[in-house]
Design a protein that fits this description.
Chain lengths: 380, 380
């Protein structure tokens, strides 16, 4: 099949990912940090190496500030619920994923307030609007780096400066950009960086993480055994154990390490150029089809995700035909982002989303354009 | 090496586990429930099949009441933090793991109270003591099924009846018993059953879950995208999506399915008999060594875990020598169970813990006994 659902999870993974997972399962299958024996130590090294690679990728000086989670959603929950207390106010954009909005909605029942800054119909955020939303009790600015629906990039560099100027904590959701766009946490003034392991970092599902800048006080989402300070019923405050209670996903994290190694080896710049070139061809090819509606930014840089509709045809019908007739896997409907669809004006129709990875080919893009041409003739 | 640290995580895994993981990574690597295309549906089936197998193992009628988590610790956090509100009171035993005690300690700062019912020096819990700890505002009885330190079984069948009689919710931590002892959630009056995927169920790390009986109202630990009700910023209340925000560990859950299949195929009874027979031989062999202190129940049924000390020798020293000289991997020190060590009187010395799985052999046990004999001569 032609897999164009990489914004949900990338597939395939680089070959090293499977190898690293098998090796860990077979030879380093013990519980890291839970025993001093050789296999436990070997498992601990696997975890630490991946932590170091991620720190390297994101310009993080202290790898112990990188905490592993089940996925990016857990990382966002840890950041939001760990930071915000009753009376606090947060500012977000209208392009956020439900993994940002739903935790805030849940917190709002406990006295946390938030303001959704509206983006324009292309998903673009105006900095002035962002800054105007700041109130005296604002504690956090939280933005997605790129929309998971339309690929629109949000101005996180500028937003980070706004956050610094106002003394606010700055959280970035890198679900669609980690491994694709350069992210240097220090330079971008990012205090909390949530990322999935299984998308642009090419690790397996079951991996993700949160970078927590030193001095940002987060209450853990989960308390429990940490393999350290075992004699105390209080959660230890050492990093990263404080936020990694219970057995970590050693095998998955080994795979993630191989994925990040792949990204570092190929170079994010080369990855992005390839994806951008494929995306441009897709956009160009689809734009020439009569009745095609293309959402998101008009041109220029964006995440390798293109949201379209064929006239007024239900997006689910188009996706269904792409899958069954053409063996092309895409996602349709609403993409776990209620606010973003309202912003784009697609809350009813949804969108057909094509999302690319480094492993897609020019041939796949051409076949996709051709399929859409045929569907356009048939459906419109 | 001789791996006797199975209470931390079992190793090796049955061969089917690796096969299932590779197959899912290679052929079903899409995001389940996030798209209608073929590969996404295939991934969804993998998840559902594992849910069904777990439901079958634990006598759960509705598989959708089984929620996947990163590990057993997350399941316990979801159960405790999801259920208990300020003013509520919980009753636990003094043999609980830190994954039970630390969340409660954290909740206690928000007005939740809990009583720790002391067990005797073998880790045994008296039902009368448990019942006497119930107060008018008690909402929950929460017990580990077996101590992770000494293997002592707690009387969960009787405790479940006590909970029912008093109209209390009953939470069982099956970290050391899932896949080893028969657990029928209905028959045992269990409302919340937390289990790891990577111990007695022989799945990979990064897997675990919580069974939530219908009608038990839990606030989710994490909110976010669920692939359902995407148009709403409110968390959906459908099962299991309500508690599974973000991308699940598809590859790990595929492995877990193979692990549970293995358990169901071999039969928990056969697994337990084999482990009990190995444990009995280990106990008998170690008991004959001068200066050996053995903790936990005097005889009879227990989890396949034996806690010992060689005279007053530091448990970490014994474990170190077992590893370096004899290539035997065990855990020493305090086992993420502050209260349990105080109960057993081992808070200072810790214990050397031998924990077995179905894959250990008689030869390994004999070699371990011999190693301990030699260490006894050398150290005492």
């Amino acid at each position: 099949m032609i897999y164009l659902d990489n914004a949900a999870t990338t597939w395939p993974k680089p070959p090293g990912v499977e190898r690293a997972m098998i090796e860990t399962l077979r030879e380093k299958g013990a519980n890291p940090g839970r025993g001093g024996h050789q296999m436990s130590l070997a498992a601990g090294r696997v975890i630490y190496q991946t932590r170091e690679l991620i720190a390297q990728l994101f310009g993080i000086r202290d790898p112990s500030r990188v905490v592993f989670t089940l996925n990016c959603t857990e990382a966002l929950n840890l950041a939001l619920k760990g930071l915000l207390r009753p009376g606090d106010h947060a500012v977000i954009s209208s392009m956020e994923h439900n993994s940002m909005v739903r935790p805030l909605k849940a917190l709002s029942y406990n006295g946390v307030e938030y303001t959704v800054v509206p983006c324009n119909e292309r998903g673009e955020l105006a900095l002035d609007d962002l800054e105007r939303a700041i109130r005296p009790h604002t504690r956090l600015i939280a933005l997605t780096h790129a929309s998971n629906v339309a690929g629109t990039l949000l101005p996180i560099a500028e937003a980070g400066k706004v956050a610094r100027r106002h003394g606010l904590t700055f959280l970035v959701d890198a679900a669609q950009t980690a491994g694709i766009f350069p992210i240097n946490a220090d330079e971008l003034n990012i205090d909390l960086l949530a990322f999935p392991g299984h998308k642009g970092l090419y690790g397996p599902p079951g991996t993700g993480g949160l970078y927590i800048r030193e001095g940002i006080p987060l209450v853990p989402l989960k308390h429990g055994g940490t393999g350290s300070s075992s004699g105390s019923v209080e959660q230890p405050e050492t990093m990263p154990e404080m936020y990694e209670s219970g057995t970590v996903n050693t095998v998955g994290i080994a795979g993630l390490g191989a994925g990040v190694s792949f990204v570092l080896q190929e170079g994010p710049e080369k990855i992005r150029q390839r994806e951008e070139s494929l995306l441009e061809r897709l956009r160009e090819g689809l734009a020439a089809i009569p009745g095609m509606k293309i959402y998101g930014p008009a041109a220029g840089s964006q995440a390798p995700t293109l949201a379209v509709n064929l006239g007024d045809t239900d997006s689910a019908e188009v996706a269904f035909l792409l899958d069954r007739v053409y063996q092309i896997g895409v996602r349709a409907g609403l993409h776990c982002a209620a606010l973003a669809h309202r912003t784009l004006g697609t809350a009813k129709q949804g969108v057909v989303r094509f999302s690319l990875s480094y492993f897609n080919t020019r041939e796949e893009i051409e076949a996709t354009i051709q399929a859409m041409e045929e569907l356009s003739k048939e459906l419109l």
